[in-house]
Design brief:
Enolase-like, domain 1; 2 domains; alpha/beta; binds 2-succinylbenzoate; binds magnesium ion; 368 residues
């Protein structure tokens, strides 16, 4: 496949509800959409670096710079039959995994389309449907939280995750458990705690949570290994896992018993699959995290979650949970049974609405 033209679109889309976490409140999603044109086909990808460096050091600006000045020049006008040949060229670039993943995902879509297979099939996924969950931001009151949880359960979601921070943790979890003693429930702290908060974290053991996600430092593995020894609830790492190497370190140290795989955070689908395979060998369940993606990134997450060891419901919700209107057709929907269908047509399996994409675009550049 000759890479003839690449377009970058920096987009800004309003969320239907503000999303509050221990890192701050998001009102908009700012990502970069990558479009590759090659031999009459189009490959789409999404870079999940955000407008601010609060979850990751990468931002839309840093990703744009790395894409424009390093990643795109390394592949433009070249001819590739497989992804590994392309992404090997990026090895000298340290970090910037979201930028790499954005471009890699567009290559996956392009190559899948050239082979006439779905992304899921190309990744080796077998599931036709996946179980999905929802990630709920910190709410202003307990009654609002309970209303949200109830609403999402009614829509079918199989698992609820709530964002927590010190002071907004035990009480909301207790309130949910009182009304919904049996649901699959988990919490995400986005690094809001210190190991000195041990007693507070320990109190969460009472509530039969599936897992506690990333309570300690955003780059830490060692302190999490100390914490895991003190609590019963499995820890799950998100921010700290950037690669298969980090995964091996975390599992060998028993720093977590579950891994959240986000393709953007680990540099793409190829690395995500390596992590998935390693975890499967080690009996560590994985689930697919989310970055409030548009339908383009969501399609990749859905395909990834069709792999065998994605045994826990992911943060993969319906398009309408995030946006009034998504930039893909059809939008992603969740059935009453809490599942989402894995697209089975070529590549990402959804069509991008170019007009809507342009409507949400705040900056565009074409590379030839
Ligand atoms: O920590 O999992 C996280 C969104 C943006 C950044 C970090 C996280 C999240 C979410 C949302 O929890 C998951 C989703 O896309 O629904
Ligand atoms: Mg998280």
């Amino acid at each position: 496949m000759k890479i003839e033209r690449i377009e970058l679109y920096s987009i800004k889309m309003e969320l239907t509800h503000p999303f509050k976490t221990s890192m701050g409140t998001d009102y908009f999603v700012e990502h970069i959409i990558v479009k590759i044109n090659s031999e009459g086909l189009v490959g789409w990808g999404e870079c999940v670096a955000e407008g601010n460096p609060f979850y990751s050091y990468e931002t839309v600006e840093t990703a744009w710079h790395i894409l424009k000045d390093f990643l795109i020049p390394s592949i433009i006008k070249k001819d590739f039959e497989d992804i590994q040949t392309a992404i090997k060229l990026w090895n000298p670039i340290r970090g910037h995994r979201m930028a790499k993943a954005g471009l890699e995902s567009a290559l996956w879509d392009l190559i899948a389309k050239s082979k006439n297979i779905s992304l899921s099939e190309m990744m080796g996924g077998k599931r036709k449907k996946i179980e999905v969950g929802v990630s709920i931001g910190i709410q202003n009151s307990e009654s609002e939280l309970l209303k949200k949880v109830e609403g999402y359960l009614k829509e079918g979601y199989k698992r609820i995750k709530i964002k927590i921070e010190p002071g907004q943790d035990i009480q909301p979890v207790k309130a949910i458990r009182k009304v919904f003693p049996e649901i699959k429930l988990q919490v995400d702290a986005n690094s809001a705690y210190k190991i000195s908060n041990l007693n507070r974290i320990k109190k969460l053991d009472e509530f039969n949570l599936l897992l506690i996600e990333q309570p300690l430092g955003y780059d830490d593995i060692f302190q999490h290994s100390k914490l895991q020894k003190e609590i019963i609830t499995p820890l799950c790492l998100d921010e700290s896992i950037h690669s298969l190497d980090d995964t091996i370190t975390a599992i060998e140290l028993d720093a977590c018993r579950v891994i959240n795989i986000k393709p953007g955070r680990v540099g793409g689908f190829s690395e995500s699959i390596r992590i998935h395979n390693y975890c499967m060998k080690k009996n560590i369940p994985v689930w697919c995290g989310g970055m409030l993606e548009t339908g383009i990134g969501r399609a990749g997450n859905v395909a990834l979650a069709s792999l065998k060891n994605f045994t826990l419901p992911g943060d993969i919700s319906a398009s309408k949970r995030y946006f009034n209107i998504d930039i893909v057709e059809p939008e992603f929907i969740v059935g009453k049974d809490g599942t989402m269908e894995v697209p089975n047509t070529n590549g990402i399996g959804v069509e991008v609405n170019q007009k809507l994409l342009e409507k949400f675009t705040v900056r565009k550049e074409t590379f030839r």
